Amino acid sequence: MNIETQKELLDLLITAEARCEALYGRFADSMAEHRGLWTRMAGEEKRHAAVLKALRGKIAAGEASFGQGELRAEAMRMFLDYVDAMAKEVSGGRMTPERALGITVDIERSYVERKVLDHFEGDTPAVAEALKVLRDESFRHVADAELAWLAARRA
Fold first, then answer.
1. Measured distance CA(52)–CA(58) in Å, rounded
2. Poorest-pLDDT segment among 19-33, 35-49, 122-136
3. What is the 3-class SS of the chain, one letter each residue?
4. Residue 1 predicted with pLDDT over 70
5. Which residue, among 72, 70, 51, 44, has the nearest Cα to 138 in the 3D structure?
């Protein structure tokens, strides 16, 4: 993968984390019954963006690498459009907590199922720790959002 494509994908991944942070913040602000979940997840998305920025620096320094795999910039842009559309919907007051939880599950599953983090490599302790944080929190996001969504559906 050429360096420009790599940079574009990393920038899109960082943007995706920031947009998810904003979306989850809107969910937290507008739906009190799951505020704790979304506030925590928004904070973790903010940390994910910072970790990805640090990984970008490690890549530039030759301490880590990022391979495109099946990840495509156009798919990332479509994902960002989806997140933006959901943010507009919740801002318009047209979203139920169950729908917001379902969207959260979809977003978090897509990140894990696309194995985005598997595209990073690096042997330094800093890179390993950064990837561990991202993986652990991403899997926890899926599990926590699914539990809340299933509970909301049963209610």
1. 10
2. 122-136
3. CCHHHHHHHHHHHHHHHHHHHHHHHHHHHHCHHHHHHHHHHHHHHHHHHHHHHHHHHHHHCCCCEECCCCCCHHHHHHHHHHHHHHHHHHHCCCCCHHHHHHHHHHHHHHHHHCCHHHHEECCCHHHHHHHHHHHHHHHHHHHHHHHHHHHHHHC
4. no
5. 44
